[in-house]
Design a protein that fits this description.
Belongs to the malic enzymes family. The protein has 21 helices and 14 strands. With about 475 residues, it is of the alpha/beta class. The structure holds NADPH dihydro-nicotinamide-adenine-dinucleotide phosphate (NDP), pyruvic acid and magnesium ion.
């Protein structure tokens, strides 16, 4: 609340403070505290941040956008609040997420704050507690679905393009998966859009896996991957890993998928379940007898990499970590779910139960852990490493579409920033303290890809793209008055 007040009162000072103390403040502006702020949003509400667009604005969304005081918008983060972190449907209290993500766009990626627009689309909520909460600030009705929902979203997407042009980036954030995959498929060929939970997460996790090869001493193609959770994050990551391996091995994506397995709420995804699976799960339905739970799947599949993306806190039990450690010298374990309460295990649990052998990263931060005289520093496998740099790269190249090769390029840039000093501490990501430099490299790789693919609208192509990215970054300094 104090930081929000500061952001309102003196934006430049807020960003100076955030940039200079990024590791300390990220857990407040972002996960886990942003999750708590969303849960308590109605009762801690002071002044509105961001733009709320509700079902009642149908037919007038363009006018609503025109009410926003800034004209030159480059990045919009939009949610409908139905899957906020691993906390479920928080209705329009989810506004904390677009606001928080865009603060990171400016602090971590150097996109000007005035060019950032947080949007929450209020189509109601199915959260009974909120509907009965006198401080709830949104529409008191069940969520609109079907045609009513898609018409509102379509009007929004059309109004965005009409008002801000072809180059405005729209980042879909924390939609429930039944809408997220459809929205991405519908708009990815006509608008500059990406889904952070599906694609940004995929890129950050791939970066961690690529970088971890230095610690496991085995190439990704030789690994076997098991996911707990087969939604946006799980299947998004799985697909990018398969794409990466297929390019490395000169093999088909179908072939590369065979070493990637996913468990959902009904157990291991196998061929006999195919008819009842949502489309995004179907590519992962491999031939295998049914397996009911995660521990059973670990024993049946023998994974080298275990990734948690189910939003189920403490699902990686002692037995799970021990099973991973019994067959792997260096089990690679990622507990991606946010906020901390939903993390599949803590860093302490991962290191203790694996007897200090796990390579561990998590979506929300954990303090370093001392185990038998050694200090283990885990890092955050969080899309916050990717989207600020990815967005900056799209902005500086004037890109008109997001292509999967840009996600690969972003992952490679991030993995390339991990130093020997990081590896020596057990880290598979670089420290957030150098995030602006990291973002400039990610932006440069993404922009380079945009130029290569003919998707860049800003010509001519700069000679030194890293320098171009660095010099385009917003910096919160006061002007000199004479
Ligand atoms: N670290 C990071 O950068 C990111 C982390 N996340 C985190 O990942 C989590 C999931 O997000 P997302 O993928 O978008 O969510 P989704 O709702 O799309 O997917 C959740 C998946 O978990 C499965 N699941 C739920 N309960 C269980 C259970 N008891 N056992 C096994 N599987 C279960 C669901 O199964 P079913 O399909 O059968 O319902 C579904 O496949 C969230 O906590 C989110 O915070 C997300 C994006 C980025
Ligand atoms: C990090 C993020 O995007 C999520 O947990 O949804
Ligand atoms: Mg998210």
């Amino acid at each position: 609340m104090a930081l929000t007040e500061l952001q309102e009162r003196n934006e430049r000072l807020f960003y100076k403070f955030l940039i200079d103390n990024v590791e300390e403040l990220l857990p407040i502006v972002y996960t886990p505290t942003v999750g708590e702020a969303c849960q308590k949003f109605g009762s801690i509400f002071r002044r509105p941040q961001g733009l709320f667009i509700s079902l009642k604005d149908k037919g007038k969304i363009l006018d609503v956008l025109k009410n926003w005081p800034e004209r030159n918008i480059q990045v919009i983060v939009v949610t409908d609040g139905e899957r906020i972190l691993g906390l479920g449907d928080l209705g329009c209290q989810g506004m904390g997420i677009p606001v928080g993500k865009l603060a990171l766009y400016s602090a971590l990626g150097g996109v000007r704050p005035s060019a950032c627009l947080p949007v929450t689309i209020d189509v109601g909520t199915n959260n009974e507690k909120l509907l009965n909460d006198e401080f709830y600030i949104g529409l008191r009705q069940k969520r609109a679905t079907g045609q009513e929902y898609s018409e509102l979203l379509h009007e929004f997407m059309s109004a965005v393009k009409q008002n801000y042009g072809e180059n405005v980036l729209v980042q879909f954030e924390d939609f429930a998966n039944h809408n997220a995959f459809k929205l991405l498929a519908k708009y990815r060929d006509s608008h500059l859009v990406f889904n952070d939970d599906i694609q940004g997460t995929a890129s950050v996790v791939l970066a961690g896996l690529v970088s971890a090869q230095k610690l496991t001493n085995s190439p990704l193609a030789e690994h076997t991957f098991l996911f707990l959770g087969a939604g946006e994050a799980g299947t998004g990551i799985a697909e990018l890993i398969a794409l990466y391996i297929s390019k490395q091995m000169n093999a088909s994506v179908e072939e590369s998928r065979k070493k990637i397995w996913l468990v959902d709420s009904k157990g291991l995804i196998v061929n006999s379940r195919k008819d009842s699976l949502q489309d995004f799960k179907k590519p992962w339905a491999h031939e295998h007898e049914p397996v009911k739970d995660l521990l059973g799947a670990i024993k049946a599949i023998n994974p080298t990499v275990l990734i948690g993306s189910a939003g189920i806190g403490r699902a990686f039990t002692k037995e799970v970590i021990e099973a991973m450690s019994s067959t792997n010298e260096r089990p690679l374990i990622m507990a991606l779910s946010n906020p901390t309460t939903q993390s599949e295990c803590t860093a302490e649990e991962a290191y203790t139960w694996s007897k200090g052998r796990a390579i561990f990263a998590s979506g929300s931060p954990f303090d370093p852990v001392e185990y038998e005289g050694n200090v283990f520093v885990s890092t955050q496998a969080n899309n916050a490493y990717i989207f600020p740099g990815l967005g900056l790269g799209l902005v500086i190249s004037g890109a008109i579409r997001v292509h999967d090769d840009m996600l690969l390029a972003a992952a490679e840039a991030l993995a390339g920033q991990v130093s020997k000093e990081n590896y020596d501490k057990g880290m598979i990501y670089p420290s957030f303290s150098s995030i602006r430099k990291i973002s400039a490299h990610i932006a440069a790789n993404v922009a380079t890809k945009a130029y290569e693919l003919g998707l860049a609208g800003r010509l001519p192509r700069p000679k030194d793209i890293v320098k171009c990215a660095e010099s385009s970054m917003y910096s919160p300094t006061y002007r000199l008055y004479r």
